[in-house]
Structures are given as C-alpha cells and as structure tokens.
Specification:
Number of helices: 4
Number of domains: 1
Number of strands: 7
CATH architecture: Roll
Order of helices and strands: EHHEEEEHEEH
CATH class: Mainly Beta
Structural class: alpha+beta
CATH topology: PH-domain like
Largest sheet: 4 strands, antiparallel
Helix content: 25-40%
Radius of gyration: 17 Å
Shape: elongated
Length: about 130
C-alpha cells in the first residue's frame, strides 16, 4: 500500500463537561445531596463518553450513542464549510461548537458541541481538504 491510501487517525476527542457548561456543572454538583445532581451528572457523563469526533487524514467521523449508534462522516475533499461558534464562557475556557457542511448536503452534516480547541480541529481538516 502506498502512503496516500493509508488512513491515519490525527485527532480524537469527546465533548468536555465543565468547560463547555460551567454553570450547569456547578449547579449539578451543588445538587449532589439530592439524587437529581448525581443522576444529572451521570447522564451527562455517559453522553459525553459515547460521543466522539475523529479526524483522520481522509475524513471526519462523528459517532454518538450507547445502545443505538449513529455515525456521520464527511470526506475532506467534500468539505465546503466549517462553522465554529463559541459563547463567552466557551471562549474563556477554550471550548466551542463546530459544524461541518459538505457538497453533498444542503445543511450542516456534522454538528459537534463542547469541543476543546475547535480552531485546532478546523486547522487539521483544512490541512487535508485540498489534497
């Protein structure tokens, strides 16, 4: 196999909890003496651990789900638009949301929230878009 046909994983990331929503995280921690806080943190943790964004040298893959799985992928050469959005708290903590659109669809195909350093992920995708 030539080097160009080998797919390499460049970046894998799960959404972050505290940095993405510090106010909600603190509220749930305060509510730990009540079952609601423990349950809320546990559900949120499972959601973050079962959501993953993988960037390879050929494509971007979003996986979600624990019992039922949902996978979306976009090949780098088809990426037409990358959107990054950040609230004020997200900017302070270096977190954001990324949306990736391709030529084949009218809207955003991959939407990933709570991504640590979204600009770095965009830079990786941009590096391989035109290859």
């Amino acid at each position: 196999m030539s080097q160009s046909t080998v797919e390499e994983t460049l970046h894998e990331v799960h959404p972050v909890m505290f940095r993405n929503a510090p106010v909600l995280f603190c509220l749930l921690v305060i509510m730990i003496p009540m079952i609601v806080g423990v349950l809320g943190l546990a559900i949120w943790w499972v959601i973050t651990k079962t959501s993953m964004l993988t960037v390879t040298n050929k494509r971007v893959i979003q996986r979600r789900g624990l019992i039922s799985k949902h996978t979306t992928e976009v090949v780098h050469r088809d990426v037409r638009n990358i959107q990054i959005s950040q609230s004020i708290f997200q900017r302070i903590f270096g977190v954001g949301n990324i949306g990736i659109s391709s030529a084949g669809q009218g809207g955003v195909e991959i939407q990933f929230d709570g991504l640590l350093q979204p600009e770095a992920v965009k830079a990786i995708i941009d590096r391989y878009r035109d290859l």
